[in-house]
Structure prediction request, 736 residues.
Amino acid sequence: MIEYYIFKHIMKNIIIGFLNFIIDIANKIVKRLTKEVVTNKITMDKIQYHNKGRYLIYYFNNTDLESSSEQVLKYIFTLLMSDDRFKNFGENKTIITTAYIDGDDFAYHPNVLITNKTTFEEYYNYVERFITENYEDGYPCNVIPRFRVRVWNMDHLANKTIKINATPITKNRRGNFISRGFHSCGFQTVTMSSTSLLKSGFHNSSIGLSQYNDLIGPLKPNFSDEVNKLATMDIETMSLPNFPFQVPVAITTAYQGGSKIFLIDNTTLHSDNIATINKSINDMWTEYVNFMLTKPGLFEYIFVHNLGSFDGLFLYKGLLNCLDPSMISCIIDDHNKFITITYTNGDVKLVWKDSYRIFPVSLDNLCKVFNVSGKISEYNPEFNQLSLFDNQDLFNQFKDYSLQDSLSLYSALVEAQNLYMKEYQIDITTIFSTSTLSLKIFRSSFLKVNIPILKGMEDSFIRKGYYGGATDYYKAKVTKAKYIDVNSLYPFAMCKPMPLDIKQFHHDLSNVKLDDFFGFALVEIDCPKDIRPVLPYRVNGKTIFPTGRWISTYYSEELKAVQELGYKITLIKGYEYTKTYLFNEYVDHFYDIKKNSTGSQRFIAKMQLNQLYGYFGRKQELLRTVNVKTSDISKYLASQLIKTIIDINDEYSTLLIHVNVETNTLFRLNSLLETNINCFETPVKSNVAIAAAVTAYARIHMIPYKLDPGCVYTDTDSTFTTSDISQFDIGNELVP
Prediction:
C-alpha cells in the first residue's frame, strides 16, 4: 500500500509539473505574440539612464495612425512591463509621459506611482482625464508620433520618508476603478512622513500674487504720458560637428540710444570637449547679463520674438547657469512655452517677454505693419559653418545680420507702444499676449459691468459645453463650386446676448421648457439618423457630430436652434443665467476701424476683434515653476502633481507643478505636508460661459451653410457650395 501511495504521489507531481510546463510555454507564446503585435504598432527606440537624476528614459516611436490614445498607451505600457530593466528598476516606480510633435514636447500625463503588479486598467484609470484634457486643449495633431517616458525608482524613499500602504482599488457602479489614494495606482498610496523634503527647491509663482478678486471689472485708463523703457534681444545659433544641440554663438540687444552684440569665444568651438564649449557659452551669457545689470533704469522689460520655445530655452538655461537659480523665475504655459522669464535681486528686476505672443506675425511683417525698417539682408547658410570665423568679411556680415533683428524689433515695438498709449492708454510692457491686451482695452474703455469669475464646480460643469468650430467635407470632388467666407464670424457672435450672472442652479429641469431657459444644461439628445448632424459631441478628446442618443452639456441657444431641425432634447439639470450685451461697443469700434483703415490701424483692429473672446475660455489651471536639483526630483514626485519637467543642465531641472485652484492649494497627497511654497487663490480671470456662448452662436450661424444641399465643405467660418449663393446674405457689413 505504501508503494502504491508513493507511486501515486510521484505520478501526481509529474502530471502537475508537465501541466505547469505546458502553461509556461503557452504564456511565453502569448507574450511573444502580444509583443510582436505591440512592436508592429509601437517600437521602443532607446533606453537611457540619467546619472544625476537617477532615472531611466524610454523613447517610443508610434506608427499607429488609427488606434485611440488608450490603445497606444496600452502598447507602451505592455512594452514597459515586458522590459527586464524596467521591472528590475524597483518595485515602486513613478513615471511621467511626454508627447513629441514637430520637434516640440507636450505634457501627456503627470507623475503616477505604479508597481510591477499594476494593471493597465488601474494605470489608465488615473491618467485618462489628464490625457483627455490635453487633447481637448489642442495638440497640433491627433496622432502622437513619439513618446518619452521617464521612470524613477521610489523604493529608496519607502524606507523612511514615504509610507506605502495598501489601498484597495474598487469599481464604482459604472465600472470605473476608484481609489482612495490621490496619485497612485496598483494598490498603492503615498503619504509623507517628513516635512523637510522640499527645503532645497527654488519656488517661483507662475502668476503674480496680487490680491485676488472674483470679478472682472472695469479699469481706469492710464492717462500718463510715461511708458516703461523696453529693450529687445535675439540669439543666433550654430550647429557643431561634435555637439549634440544647436549652440548659441551670438546674443544681441537693442535699447534706447544703442545696441550691442556679445560673441562666443569661437576658438573653443573646434574642441571635442563638450565642457569646454559649455564654459564658453556660459561666459557669453555672463557678459550679456553683466552688461544688462550695469545699466540701471535703462532695461527692465526685454522682448524676444521667439521666447516661447527656441530662444526662451537658451535664455533660461543661460541665466540659470551664470546666476543664482533662486533669483530666476518664469511663467510657462501648459505646452511648455515660456511666457516670461524674470531675474529679481532686491530692487533690481529684469523681465524677458515674448513679443510674438502679443503680435503673432513674423518680424518682417511686424516691421511692415508699423512702417519701420526691417531686415537689411537675408540669412546666409554660411553663417552656420565654423569657417565663418575665418572669413572677416563674412563675419562682419554675420554681426550686422545678428544685430538687425534686435534693432528692427525694437523700432517696431516702440511704434506699437506709442500707438497703444495714444489710442488706448495702455503700455504694451504691462501685458503678456494679444488676448491680455484685448482684455485690458476692453476693461479700460468699454466694460460697464462686473463679470463674475466662475467657481471651480461651475467652471467644470459649463466647460463641458465649450466647443470650437468644425471642419467637414461631404464630397471628395466637385467642379464649379462657390466659396463663401462669413464676415468676422466671432465678432458677429460676440454681439449676441451673453450669459452674465448665475440666477440659480437647477438640480431638476424636467418641468422646465427649453424656450423658457437661458444658460447651460446637461441634456439628453436624440438626433434622427436622417438629418445632417450639426450638434458637436466630445468622445475621447475628439469632437464629432453624431446621430443617435447621448447625454452632454450645451448652451441653451444652440439647443433651441437644433430643436427646430428635429433634435429631441430632454433637460436634466443646469445653470440658469441672466443675459446682457457685453461686447457690442467694443466690436463696433474695432470693426469700423478694420473696415475703413489700412496699415497698423487695420492690423490692430483685426487682431483685437479676434482675440478677446478666447481669453474668457482660459482653463482655471495654474502651474507653479520650481527650480530644483535634478537629484532631488524624486522627492517632489512623492508629494506634488508634476505636469512636466524641463531639463536645464546636469545639476538643475525646472518642474511644472499643478496648482489646485478649487482648493487654492498645490496638488498634494497629504494635506499636512508643509513646504515653503505659498499657496494662493486663483488669479485666472476667466469665465468659460462667455467663451462657450460666443462659439455656440458662431456654430448656430453656420447651420444654414452646413444644411445647404449644395454644400461640399465647411470649416469654422466658410463653405464651398454648388448652390446659388444669392440665397445667402452677401456684403461687407458685420451684421447681415
Remarks:
- The chain has three domains: 33-192, 220-432, 452-617+687-727.
